[in-house]
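Fold this complex.
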Amino acid sequence: AQKITQTQPGMFVQEKEAVTLDCTYDTSDQSYGLFWYKQPSSGEMIFLIYQGSYDEQNATEGRYSLNFQKARKSANLVISASQLGDSAMYFCAMREGLRAGGTSYGKLTFGQGTILTVHP
Amino acid sequence: NAGVTQTPKFRILKIGQSMTLQCTQDMNHNYMYWYRQDPGMGLKLIYYSVGAGITDKGEVPNGYNVSRSTTEDFPLRLELAAPSQTSVYFCASSYMRAGHTIYFGEGSWLTVV
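Structure:
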């Protein structure tokens, strides 16, 4: 079973507009963490934002926010005021079993990715 | 600030050859990971380690082996290279704490011909 699902292979957005990238996950662990990474064409992995399963508030980092809906097991990334430099591949990832004894102790799994293109 | 260092950056292997991708981190992280990324695809977990002497399989372990004799090093061994192992390989590391940033190496481009 897919642990992390990103259903949007590609997304287009106009510069300065907001865009939401979808991510759903599947885990039986109670303690887990969700990450979003950006991968530009140069290939490096750039950390954007983190949400813990017990965090009560949605995470925000500058123009990035994470819309965390625990009951629906979704962790969508919202990018506000898109910029041309935001054009890249975006990955959602989940780390399970954050407490010792979890069944997937420390495993970090990535989704398939979404290619975001920002138009001027 | 070295962070996570992977070597080599580029390598061409012939079918049936073996090689080791090196990964070293200088942040005293206990978690380390190896991923492969095929063109236009996501990262697939090959092996991971939660500390020296402890390793476990990920989603795509076949054809690979790892060891973790020290906290710093997590080499990935390819035995009998096959064209299907042509990919970009990423090593990553982090602390065993919720929310701690996961640091990635720059990637190793491997082609098997």
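The two ends of chain A are 39 Å apart (CA to CA).
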